[in-house]
Amino acid sequence: MKLLITLARIFVGVLFIFSGLVKANDPLGLSYKMQEFFEVWHMFYLNDYALAMALVMNVFEIVAGVAILIGWRTKLVTWLLFLLIVFFTFLTAYAAFSGKIAACGCFGDCIPLKPMQSFWKDVILFVLILFLLINHKRIHPILSSKAAASVLVISTIAVAGLQWYVLHHLPIVDCLPYKKGNNLLEQMKTPAGFIPDEYSYVFIYQKDGKKYEFNEDNLPEDESYEFVDRKEKLVKKGNDLKAKITDFNLVTESGTDTTAALLNSTGKYVMIFSNETDPKEWSSPKYDRQLWAVLSKKVPVFIVSSVPVHVKGITTLKCDNTVIKTAARAKPTYFVMQGANILGKFSYAQSEKVEELLK
């Protein structure tokens, strides 16, 4: 029994620490995933609190993992872990069985799990944590109370510091398709072996107060039939292969799609990604207009935003809001490009590196 308890502690503690660290590397990404759940549940009022909730949850997940490993206040910790895994299991079950959430984000973007994989992972954790809860009296601390408290305080400060850093300097490990070294055109290619979903369509028409259904090959030619609706039915499910980037488009203020032209160019240029809608924020120090003016004399500079932005001497390109949130985890984020190749990616806190790279 002692061996089983020890193995369960190690597995649960290490997994919680690992999961928390992966998400703490990109807390903004976790907050976007939370907002996805909130929007499905029509709880839009929680969107503004998503980031704070993500930050706190990551700290709690890691500290709880450390606590169970060192055996600190086992009754309290096992109960907290049990409540947490019940909540996580509910989320993953909802994602797996409702089909409304593509992924739960359990391990962030670095280790994408399918909803059903996430669900079964949480089921296993649920059983192990329940086992630890039942046997919490048999778990003995490996450190003194003072040493354990010090370890937990240090863990809390370290995780909080990590999250503060990545929010200002971008994730330490970039697991997104827009990371440094990637070629955007390559990321936009459909992989070999891709099989799309196949659908059939049923067209509903009305005549003399009655409704009739027709397939695509048997539409009524009689003009007395009035079209009412069209239904889509999945005939054959395709595979999960798809391009890593599917919706990256850059449009000029005049409405011209300049994506291909820019990505197929040969020279260097800088894209400044930001989606700030508050005009006051554009005047804050992190939006270094003087730097932009210097950069624009060396290479073309573009502001990429989903809202209109007017900065003298800088061309603005419109892009989808979701793309910007995926590509740039800080506002603003600088992309130093050469054609479709990402030579460098820096947050506003590292803006001096942009000019250095261009040298």
Describe the structure in your own words:
This protein has eleven helices and eight strands. It has 359 residues and is of the alpha/beta class. The protein is flat, with a radius of gyration of 26 Å. It folds into three domains: 2-169, no CATH class; 198-236, no CATH class; 259-358, Glutaredoxin (3-Layer(aba) Sandwich), CATH 3.40.30. Helix 1 (2-24) runs antiparallel to helix 3 (50-70), helix 2 crosses helix 3 and helix 3 (50-70) packs across helix 4 (74-98). It has helices spanning 2-24, 27-40, 50-70, 74-98, 115-134, 145-169, 184-187, 259-263, 289-296, 321-327, 352-358; strands spanning 198-207, 210-214, 226-236, 268-273, 301-305, 315-318, 333-338, 341-347. 44% of the residues lie in helices and 15% in strands. The strands form two sheets. It has a five-stranded mixed sheet, with helices on both faces. Strands 2-1-3 form a three-stranded antiparallel sheet, with no helix packed on it. Helix 9 links the parallel strand 4 and strand 5 (301-305).
Proportion of residues in helical segments: 40-55%
Overall structural domain count: 3
SSE series: HHHHHHHEEEHEHEEHEEH
Strand content: 15-25%
Could you say which overall geometry the principal axes of the C-alpha atoms support? flat
Name the strands of the widest sheet in spatial order.
6-5-4-7-8
The rounded Rg comes to 26 Å
Residue stretches low in confidence (pLDDT < 50, at least 5 long) are none
Distance between the amino and carboxyl termini:
63 Å
The class by helix and strand makeup works out as alpha/beta
Number of strands: 8
> What does the main sheet amount to?
5 strands, mixed
Mean pLDDT: 88
Oligomer designation: single chain
Number of helices: 11
